[in-house]
Amino acid sequence: MTESNDTSLTGRVSRGFAWMLLLTIGSKLFGFATQMVLARLLLPKDFGIMTMAYAAAAIPSMIRQTGIIQILVRKQSAFDRWVNAGFWMELALGTLAALLTIAVAPAACTFFHTQRLFGPLMIIASLAVLAALMTPPFARLTLDLRFRDMSTVGLGCNVFVMASSIGLAFLGCGVYSFFIPLPVAAILRAGLFWRMAPVRIKLDLQLHRWRPMFLDSMYLMGSGLFATILGQADNVALGRFVTATEVGYYSVASNLSSQMLQLLSINLSGVLFSALSSLKDSPPRQTAAFFRAARLLALIGIPLCVLESALAGPIIRLMYGQKFLGAVPLLRLLALSSGINLLFGPLQNFLQAQGRFGYLFKWLGLLVVVFVAVVSVAAWRSGALWVAGAVLGVAAAFQPAGMWLATRSRGGTWRQVAAVYMPPVLFSAASLTPAAILFLLGSPTPAIAVAGVGAFFPIYVVLARLLRRSDFAELRAVASRILRRHP
Questions:
Q1: CB of 104 within 8 A of CB of 117?
Q2: Helix and strand element counts for the chain (H, E)
Q3: Which one of 73, 90, 231, 263 has the lowest number of neighbouring Cβ atoms within 10 Å?
Q4: In whole angstroms, what is the distance from residue 82 CA to residue 234 CA?
Q5: What pLDDT score does 479 carry?
Q6: DSSP letter string over 84-134?
Q7: How far apart (Å, rounded) are the C-alpha atoms in residues 312 and 331?
Q8: Are 316 and 47 in contact (CB under 8 A)?
Q9: Contact 98, 115 (CB under 8 A)
């Protein structure tokens, strides 16, 4: 690939990430407002029931996590030949996932000691089929790097769900306020995607093409299963051993701590996978591109997560009120773990873009074994606070090591991994020093908190500009493109 092609690719990635970031920020602002309203209309146990419902449906839903979208994107020029079979395979597995979710609902109610899970699980079951309907156009839009269109639709549907949830909560629908809008939004999203990227689908199931796609997707299915377990093991353990109210506190803290992951990491992951797939014939350049994106992501995301941890108390009070104060210590720990896990999604995309599905499967499998054991013991013996501590400990132990192991055969080094994590961590710690001194010298008043936060960002920016000149310059360039809206 020529230098001009590299520049073109960089511009397309920047443009895609910029649009997804801008529209996701808008969605998050609506989301924060929605959460603040729902927290005052609903009870902590309603949040706990919602969390347990998703945890109960996680494993059956994994049946349809075949990675068909990633496989179709990697097909590149052969997309049109494979998309029909991919759609029917995804729809069949989505239907199977829905039936399994319905089947496990009674057992889930017994396991979590509440019959209130049954109705939400029926709604979640329908989503498995509806999600499969949008696979062909979503894959086409991803392949074409049309992230602006995808993000616009996502924002509109999210706003619909949030507004509907508030309305239902006002009407006294309780925990169903979270679930009833979801199938409607899924139908709207699928319809809009098909309108933007029509893909020809035939009645012929093309079963002869299912087998090679299934073989390609086996590791992706296994990896997706492991990723789902990692995302839900703590909720399952807590739902089994503690009250719904305590699960609600943990759910609120987990949701807030994951905002940086969703805002930055997940948006970048979709763009990064498409970009890295286009470099599949040059593994060293894939590795260099990955580390470049990782440094920028960490330089932005880690200080925000550190600051969220430091301001956990005011954040919970502002957004959820006094009845959710039990979430404060949990948010302090989970926000830090999110800072470490910012690179979890992009690292998976790096391995998928290289076709190293087997390696990804083994790495996630080891992580699952350790994570499930640790959080299960923590929930059984000590409760939510120890579970949050276990999540942080596993992230700190596995994420940097996993990055090095995944990249070392492609030229990655420990020095490159350290260059991702150490600068933003040290800069964040130094930037918090004035706030810590103010708190030690006086009582923790709102004025002191504002002064500490006010000092944080200027100090961080100065340190980043002085000590990470090239990364800071690239961040400024990306920000300039976003503001101009035409990278």
A1: no
A2: 21, 0
A3: 231
A4: 38
A5: 62
A6: HHHHHHHHHHHHHHHHHHHHHHHHHHHHTT-GGGHHHHHHHHHHHHHHHHT
A7: 6
A8: no
A9: no
Tokens 């093309």 sit on residue:
206
**Which structure tokens are listed for 27?**
């969605």
Whether residue 169 has pLDDT greater than 60: yes
353 near 280, Cβ under 8 Å? yes
> What is the b/e burial string over 396-416, where b = at least 16 CB atoms within 10 angstroms of the residue's CB?
bebbbebbeebbeebebeeeb
- Given a contact cutoff of 8 angstroms between Cβ atoms, the answer to whether 63 and 100 are in contact is yes
CB 95 within 8 A of CB 129: yes
Please report the pLDDT score of residue 414 as a whole number: 92
Q: How many residues does the chain have?
A: 487
Classified as helix, coil or strand, 458 is helix
Q: How many angstroms from the chain centroid is the CA of residue 286?
A: 22
* Confidence at residue 373, expressed as pLDDT on a 0 to 100 scale: 95
**pLDDT tens figures, 43-96:** 888 999 999 999 998 878 777 766 777 777 777 677 878 888 888 988 888 899
Q: Are the C-beta atoms of residues 60 and 97 closer than 8 Å to each other?
A: yes
What span, in angstroms and rounded, lies between the C-alpha atoms of 288 and 294? 10
pTM for the whole structure: 0.73
The answer to whether 385 and 312 have CB atoms below 8 angstroms apart is: no
